[in-house]
Each structure stands twice: as structure tokens, then as C-alpha cells.
């Protein structure tokens, strides 16, 4: 007989994949089955995602689940904000435009006068890639789309597989269009000239539809929401840092905090608040590595890094998508690095110092003192980064799990399947499903 199981589709900004998962002896066991690189494509004067690739990996996951598991489910998570448009018949009229498309930055600047009002109404950090600015850009360059049903990427894929239209809460909370009470904020739509959706955001953890015998479960479809769940229980004196293309640094609170527009109030899978800052992550490091054309990988390169006081503030808007990352970094310091080790030192120090500065701001805004940083995502596998962060922040950095997003995705599916006695049982199972490595600051805690 086939075992019970689930598949988790995880769409990242540079790679897409799916993993198979099972519950065994109180632990969630998973294995990545397929993974493919991807990047935005130039189409019709815009940056668009290769949507056939995104839909293809999800379709493949459903077929795998049907073949290998009994009464299987699938769940989809992805980066935030991006979306596609479908007409009343369900046909796609515009596939997802990539958040780095220049039209979004232009609209961000055009609507800058509204930013204080928008932050007060939504609690979401001002970023040019937010769905609000994307819809405003589409209203200007494709007015025929106004009134079409826009569906956020994970839900768009789920709709195409099952025919069920849905808006998941954690993903909706990234749009800068949702209010502080988990419903759409009408004033945001008024500002951009777009109708308020009829479909309201829904909390995850439900079976939504069926694709060839495989049930679709709404998980924390924003990947960071799944990643935070994948850490298990979080204490108030622990900050989370999920590091991939972006770094998401934050803590979980019960109510929105609106005192600093540099921080965002997104939702957790249980409808609390992920109070966090979006920080450039390994995108910067990977860009430098690529531009240098080094014959070895990023992990080996970062081990060459030397302690240095030279660093660039990666929160500056110029680092969002520069023509050449090395040129921009070199312009921020007195002298450009002379060799690969120098570039590793500058890139790593810039990421670590930027993260540490945001950690101090997070403490100031929340009134919390963080004794530890829970580090997850692909960046948690870099011992060089984890130790450098511990040294710079003077806090213990607990690295792992690297696959927190997959773990959180699968946990919500098993919850919807009825595998847990309750929420506490889910969290205990998640915590038992991974090991960690503790990095202690070499000059002690402060």
C-alpha cells in the first residue's frame, strides 16, 4: 500500500522545486525531488516570469504525489507580491510580471506623496515591488486589465490546476493593499484606480480543491510565512532571519507596529504579525560572485573573507537592481578590492553590517532584546555568514533548518489532513524535524 504523504511546491526568485514529505515517528521527513533554475525574461518590453516553468513544476509535483502517496495533498508557496490576470472564463490574459520590472519603480516614485497614508492604513513597508505599485503600473500601461481578476502567483497556479479561485492571507498581506484587520483596504485601491476585489483573504490550513485526485491545501503561500512556521516555537527574545535572495529579519508580535515605515507587518499562518524588514540577501553576494567569474562556488569564496570595517549600506535603493553590483559596491568604499578575498570581505561585511543595523532597529521598535537569531533558509548553510553575523551582532546565531520553508509548507498540509491533535502538536513535530548549529560570538555577548 502506498504511504500517506504530501508534496510541497516552493517557488523562489532564482529556482523552483518541489519536495515530497511524510510523517514518520513524530517527525516530518522530506526530500527534494526536482529543482530548476529560472529568471525573468524580457517580453513585450517588460520583465516577465517564465510562467510555463512555474506551472510545469507544480504539475509535475501533482503527478508525483498521485503516483507515490495515498490520499495525497499539495501546497504552493512563493515569493510575495507578483500576480497574473485571468478573465471571467479563467483564461490568463497577462502572466506574472517580475517585481524588478522598472515600471514599478517609476510608479513608486509617482505615488510617493501617498506613502504616509498608505503605511498608516496597511502597515506594509514601502517597496517599489509591492503589488500596489504593480497594479498602478498595469493601470497605466495596460488599462484593458482593469477589472480583470488578478490572482497572486501561488493561488494562480492552484487555480489553473483545480479551477478554484482563492486568495491566501499571508500572501495577500505582502501586497500593501490589505488593511490592518485582514481585509482589503479600499483607500489603497482608490489611490491606484483599481476596483476592490470581491474575494477576501483567507487563513491557510484548508483543503481547497482537487487536481487529478491530489487535494490542494492552502499553506502559508508567502514563503517567509512558511519559513517562520518551519522554525517551530519562537521565543520573544529570538529574532528570525530567513536568508535567500532576500533576507527577512523580524519577530512575531500580536498587533501591528506602525512607528517605523522601514518595517512591515505581514501575517503569520495563524494570523499574527510577522514584524520584519526586507533586506537584500544573497542576491548581492551572488551577483558579485557571478560578475567576478570565479571558478569556484560561493561557499568556498566566502571562506576567504577577512574581518574588515569597510562595508556598504545595502538598504540603499541603488542596490535593488544595479547594472553591475561590483561597480556599485566599489563606489561605496575608499578603494575597490584588489582580489577575490577582498571582494568576499566587502560583500560579506556589507550584508552582515546591514543586517546587524536592522537588528538594532528591530529591537528599538519592539522594545525587545534579542539574545539569539534563528537563521534559516539557504543562507543558514553558510558557516562564514553565520559566524560573521554572530561576531558583528554579539548574539548567538542558531543556524537551521535550511529547508524551513518546505518544512512549514508540509506542516500546514499535514495539519489540514488531520494528522496533528492541535497547533501545539504541530509545533512540537516541526521542532523535532531538524537539527541546528549554534554560532557563538568570538568576542562575547554584549
For the biggest sheet, the summary is: 7 strands, mixed
Q: What portion of residues belong to β-strands?
A: 15-25%
Strand arrangement in the largest pleated sheet: 14-15-13-12-16-17-18
Low-confidence parts, pLDDT < 50 over ≥5 residues? none
Mean pLDDT: 96
CATH architecture assignment of the largest domain? 2-Layer Sandwich
Q: Give me the count of strands.
A: 18
Q: What name goes with the CATH superfamily of the largest domain?
A: ATPase, nucleotide binding domain
- The domain count comes to 2
User: Could you name the CATH class of the largest domain?
Assistant: Alpha Beta
Helix-residue proportion: 25-40%
User: End-to-end span in angstroms?
Assistant: 56 Å
Query: What structural class do helix, strand and pairing data support?
Result: alpha+beta
**CATH fold call of the largest domain:** Nucleotidyltransferase, domain 5
Shape: globular
What value does the Rg take, in angstroms? 21 Å
Tally of DSSP helical segments: 15
Amino acid at each position: 500500500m502506498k504511504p500517506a504523504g504530501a508534496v510541497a511546491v516552493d517557488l523562489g526568485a532564482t529556482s523552483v522545486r518541489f519536495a515530497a514529505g511524510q510523517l514518520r515517528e513524530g517527525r516530518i521527513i522530506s526530500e527534494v525531488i526536482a529543482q530548476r533554475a529560472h529568471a525573468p525574461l524580457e517580453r513585450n518590453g517588460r520583465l516577465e516570469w517564465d510562467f510555463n516553468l512555474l506551472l510545469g513544476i507544480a504539475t509535475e509535483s501533482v503527478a508525483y504525489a498521485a503516483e507515490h502517496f495515498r490520499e495525497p495533498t499539495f501546497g504552493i508557496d512563493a515569493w510575495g507580491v507578483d500576480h497574473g490576470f485571468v478573465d471571467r472564463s479563467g483564461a490568463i490574459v497577462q502572466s506574472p510580471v517580475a517585481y524588478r520590472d522598472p515600471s514599478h519603480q517609476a510608479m513608486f516614485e509617482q505615488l510617493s506623496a501617498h506613502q504616509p497614508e498608505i503605511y498608516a492604513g496597511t502597515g506594509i513597508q514601502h517597496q517599489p515591488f509591492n503589488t500596489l505599485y504593480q497594479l498602478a503600473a498595469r493601470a497605466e500601461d495596460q488599462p484593458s486589465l482593469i477589472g480583470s481578476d488578478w490572482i497572486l502567483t501561488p493561488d494562480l497556479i492552484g487555480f489553473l490546476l483545480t479551477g478554484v479561485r482563492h486568495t491566501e492571507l499571508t500572501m495577500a498581506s505582502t501586497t500593501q493593499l490589505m488593511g490592518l484587520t485582514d481585509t482589503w483596504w479600499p483607500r489603497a485601491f482608490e489611490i491606484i484606480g483599481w476596483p476592490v476585489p470581491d474575494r477576501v483573504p483567507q487563513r491557510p490550513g484548508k483543503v481547497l480543491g482537487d487536481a487529478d485526485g491530489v487535494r490542494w491545501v492552502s499553506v502559508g503561500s508567502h514563503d517567509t510565512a512558511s519559513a517562520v512556521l518551519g522554525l517551530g516555537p519562537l521565543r520573544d527574545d529570538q529574532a528570525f532571519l530567513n536568508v535567500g535572495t532576500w533576507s527577512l529579519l523580524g519577530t512575531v508580535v500580536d498587533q501591528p507596529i506602525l512607528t517605523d515605515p522601514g518595517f512591515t507587518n505581514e501575517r503569520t499562518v495563524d494570523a499574527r504579525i510577522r514584524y520584519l524588514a526586507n533586506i537584500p540577501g544573497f542576491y548581492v553576494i551572488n551577483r558579485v560572485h557571478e560578475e567576478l567569474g570565479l571558478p569556484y562556488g560561493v561557499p568556498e569564496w566566502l571562506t576567504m573573507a577577512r574581518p574588515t570595517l569597510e562595508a556598504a549600506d545595502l538598504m540603499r535603493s541603488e542596490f535593488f537592481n544595479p547594472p553591475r553590483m561590483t561597480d556599485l559596491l566599489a563606489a561605496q568604499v575608499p578603494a575597490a578590492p584588489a582580489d577575490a578575498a577582498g571582494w568576499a570581505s566587502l560583500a560579506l561585511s556589507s550584508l552582515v553590517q546591514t543586517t546587524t543595523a536592522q537588528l538594532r532597529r528591530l529591537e528599538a521598535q519592539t522594545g525587545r532584546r534579542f539574545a539569539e537569531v534563528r537563521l534559516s533558509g539557504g543562507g543558514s548553510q553558510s558557516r562564514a555568514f553565520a559566524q560573521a553575523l554572530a561576531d558583528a551582532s554579539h548574539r548567538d546565531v542558531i543556524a537551521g533548518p535550511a529547508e524551513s520553508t518546505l518544512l512549514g509548507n508540509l506542516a500546514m498540509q499535514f495539519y489540514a489532513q488531520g494528522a496533528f491533535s492541535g497547533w501545539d502538536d504541530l509545533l512540537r513535530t516541526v521542532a523535532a524535524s531538524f537539527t541546528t548549529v549554534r554560532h557563538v560570538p568570538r568576542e562575547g555577548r554584549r
